[in-house]
Amino acid sequence: MTRPHRPTPPLRSALLLTAALCATLLATAPAVAQAPAAAPAPAAANQDSSIVLIGKDGWLFPAWGSLTDVDAPAIARNTALIADAKRALDAAGVKLEVLVLPDKALFYEDRLPDGKRLGDAVRGRYALVHDGLEKAGVPAVDALQVLRQTKQGGQDVFYRSDQHWTQAAADAVAVAVAAQVRQQVPTLAGEAGTGMALGSEIKERRFGDLAELFLTDAQRKAIGRDTFTVRRQSDQQSLLDDAPAPVHVTGHSMVQPYFGFPQKLSNVLDRPVSVNWKPGNVGHWVMLLEYLESPEFKQHKPQVLVWQMFEPSYVQGPDARGQWDNASIMTPQQWQARLLKALGQ
């Protein structure tokens, strides 16, 4: 899902071997999510921008996807690719769990600018994706329902001026993913007591990524800062903890440790959880390959692999030129060939 981003330390895009090591990143600002490859200058952003929609009460929304149209054939093609990957991972002894995160506008349509509304096709897009995965035999948590329940409980699930989910949203989905992981693999490797201990929460006041990156100074000042909830690293968690993780998460900036998903998943499963992710518009296809082709995967294959992707970009296959960066572009056949080679098949 990701595009232009703040400068970040090298560890940000590295394979993080345990949930304990993930915690080392909590003190830094998060990387951002995806914008299209050809973006106009941030100063051009306004309500009609191709980058950001300025909605009611300072709510901001990514504007690089259609609010009305859905490419159903592309969704079906990509689901077939994912199902093929699931079968290959099964053969390698790794269970796949797909996590598709829904569009922010589904939860805050009433905050869109006047005259902007979701079409029925877009309102039904998440169900189209999720039902397709289910029919293809690919396990996938229904994150839309989980987050709707979270919002109905009185908690925001996305930040007002940011593309990313809140800690409450990340926690709720982590609990749901953990339950499904336990269904797939009732007995996880490792020892009880090795999950991440959750640290205390702190509040940070800052501009969300959509405001910081794509608004003029005057617009940013009018929108104002948001309050972000972040967990400190727990004193009980040793940074030297390098026990192999039976569960691995691969994805984009939504699963970076700043927002708390891998830590909560580790805590609920009571096992280490490893994660690899990158900011920028690299896409979920390449992120999976980078992990499967890494020495870490070959040395310590997880029992379960959680592959996170994003509903609005689900239609974009490995060959989506103008969406992923050039280094990430490949044909579906090339992607499948690299996948099978990485798995030794």
The residue ranges in which pLDDT falls below 50 over 5 or more consecutive positions are 1-28, 35-48
Number of strands: 8
Shape: globular
The secondary-structure class comes to alpha/beta
Chain-wise SSE layout:
Blueprint: H1 19-22, E1 52-54, E2 60-62, H2 72-91, E3 95-101, H3 120-123, H4 125-135, H5 143-152, H6 167-184, E4 198-206, H7 209-214, H8 217-223, E5 226-233, E6 247-251, H9 261-269, E7 273-277, H10 283-292, H11 295-299, E8 304-310, H12 332-342
Parallel strand pairs: 3-8, 6-7, 6-8
Antiparallel strand pairs: 1-2, 4-5
Helix pairs in contact: 2-4, 2-12, 5-6, 6-9, 10-12
Keywords:
345 residues, alpha/beta, four-stranded parallel sheet, two-stranded antiparallel sheet, 12 helices, 8 strands, 33% helix, disordered N terminus
Briefly characterize the structure.
The chain has 345 residues and is an alpha/beta fold. It has helices at residues 19-22, 72-91, 120-123, 125-135, 143-152, 167-184, 209-214, 217-223, 261-269, 283-292, 295-299, 332-342, and strands at 52-54, 60-62, 95-101, 198-206, 226-233, 247-251, 273-277, 304-310.
